[in-house]
Amino acid sequence: MLVTWKYRPRDTFIQSLDPRARLTFMACVILAITATDVWDARLLLPVFAISMVLYFMARIEWRDVRRAWIFILVFILFIIGLNALLGGRGGPLSVLQDDSSVLYALSIPIPLTPWRINLTVTVVRSFFALVQMMRMITMAALAIPIPYTIDPSIYGVTFRRMGASDKLSFTMDLAFRFVPTLGRDFMITMDAQRARGYELESVRGGLIQRLRRLAPLLVPVTMQAIVNGEEVIDAMDLRAFGARRRTWLRELHLRQRDYWFMALGVIILVIMMTARILGYGEFWVPGFWYRLVGT
Asked: Which of 41, 89, 65 is nearest to 283 (CA)?
């Protein structure tokens, strides 16, 4: 049986919105941040504030999203943040060619070679890292609440009413349920192995040894995923899925608040596009940042 994320009904403004309005708004914001290539913090900060306000309005318990946020923050801080801070890559050309004051310089020798890796942290790159992380957190704050605040029974009809085909809509429905289903099967398998005396926690050798002990669990989990997939395929075939246009039990209706919410997303996208067309949105470092870092 397929399971879902920890969705529960909440009497919030976010859950009262039509899922199509929320997905449209999120798509507009992501396009405004990424496709328009805007790096000006003065334009990005209001979008960041809006996304954080919407996230807290969803009233999702920390224990439900703790792992998701930890993974995302680690990814942002150690991959995107450090890459932007030390190399300045992934951003505008002005960051790669900056001549601002050096805050920290590091030279790392490459073993068995005469070469060294020179890493230099400058004032401009430090602020660029902050802007890059703000962009990523803005998108994460909009995406994380989606599986926790949208009824899983309307995933399929949501994408269908947005113009997707029946097959694509049902595929998206199953995709949203795949990860939590896989996680449930893994926990069941791990508990079954513990009941049989298979040691998982108290293992000497550290993290590497624990990962090796988890390897035998991958076979039954993978086999269960294949079996679940076969069961879904058989159920769809028995119902002649794809033979004709599908009807959906749930109906969605856009209300005035949904149109206003989608309009807000379109306005953000238009503002970002207009700013780039008019020559604004380039990377900018505020004057207080130079004083803050002591240069």
From this structure: 41
Domain count, the chain: 1
Position 1 in a domain: no
Token pair for residue 227? 């079996």
Whether the model pTM is above 0.85? no
Distances 22 to 80, 196, 257 between C-alpha atoms, Å = 26, 46, 11
Is 237 contained in some domain?
yes
pLDDT digits (tens, 9 = 90+) for 147-168: 888 887 788 888 888 888 878 8
Burial of 134-166, coded b for 16+ CB within 10 Å and e otherwise, reads: bbbbbbbbbbbbbbbbbebebbbbbbbbeeeeb
With respect to residue 8, please indicate whether it lies within any of the assigned structural domains. Answer: no
Q: Is residue 255 part of a domain?
A: yes
6-25, pLDDT tens digit by residue? 777 788 889 889 999 999 99
**Residue 71: domain span:** 14-292
